[in-house]
Amino acid sequence: MAEDSNPLTFFENLLDDDVLIKDIVEKNLTYFDYQYTLNTHDGTYTFFDSDEDQIRILYLSDLIESTLIKERSNTIEIIKKEFIKNSSIESNTVKILKYYFHKINQLINSNKEKLKLYPSIYKQLEKIVHEINIMLEVNGEKQLKLDFKLEKIKGITDSKINFKIDVDNFFLFLKTAETINDDDYEILKDNIFSFYISREINKTTRKIAFKRITQKELSFSFYVFNLACSQESFSHSMLAEFLINTISNFKKYSNSSLEKIMGSTSGIKWKDFIPSNIKDFNKHR
Question: Are 61 and 119 in contact (CB under 8 A)?
Fold first, then answer.
């Protein structure tokens, strides 16, 4: 297996080089307007949020999250390509998948202490293993388990500043109403975070499928969320492109056709589980 095609190169280099982590943090800090103070004793960043008139803390894990999400997506895509390329020879496919699993397992075992400091890295490696296990199951193989389990992960869900508002305030109803499962909800939040922080669309190979909710209800929910993001909000065109690339329910839409219904409540018969801050949004404008 050629070294230059190794899909785990980024994560191997990241865990081997603290300077690389620092570079990513500095790059991602440029997306925020606030002045930060680094707390060297615990690796957090403190800033004064003038909008909320209070001091907030941002974990270093949050500052590398968007980059890690993109690299995890790239890694999974490369592994899936090898999986498809070798799918005609089942023994080769299984060997490749187990090879990458053992590389990740070894990488984690060799960097336990660093992963405790940077739990977001562990989180993404764990998600790569999850995708590998899905492909192993397709080939009739049992799932593989990592030797080391990081019990507590400080990441995006622990942060107090997901672009000034809490994603769960808007979208937790999608999980509690069982429109998507728990795993897909976490993927959705990762994709939202990546989109608003990195300002790029993560063109995932596996789109999320919703049930019990219409396309108009979904698109309007994201429309309200996008407006609430204030300075970080996107144009309707960019938001439409994000939804089409992230959610399979919009597969029949083009960017322009989805953009046309963005913000419209015409013809919507709201489900009971849709929060009032979304369905009554236009009444209070």
Answer: yes
Could you tell me if 278 and 224 are in contact, meaning their C-beta atoms sit under 8 angstroms apart? yes
Contacts of the segment 227-231: beta carbons below 8 A, 24+ positions apart: 228/165, 228/170, 229/163, 229/164, 229/165, 229/196, 230/164, 231/33
Distance, CA of 99 to CA of 122 (rounded, Å): 18
| Strands of the 37-39 sheet, one edge to the other | 37-39, 44-49, 54-59
Kind and range of the H or E element at 34? none
- Tens digit of each residue's pLDDT (9 = 90 or more) over 164-174: 346 777 898 99
| pLDDT tens string 170-198 | 898 999 999 999 889 988 888 887 787 66
User: Which residues, at least 6 apart from 108, have a Cβ–Cβ distance to it below 8 Å?
Assistant: 115, 122, 125, 146, 147, 148
Q: What are the beta bridge partners of residue 38?
A: 45
Q: Where exactly are the structural domains of the chain?
A: 3-156, 162-284
CA distance 140 to 101: 16
How far is 71 from 179, CA to CA, in rounded Å?
28
150 confidence band (pLDDT: 50, 70, 90): confident
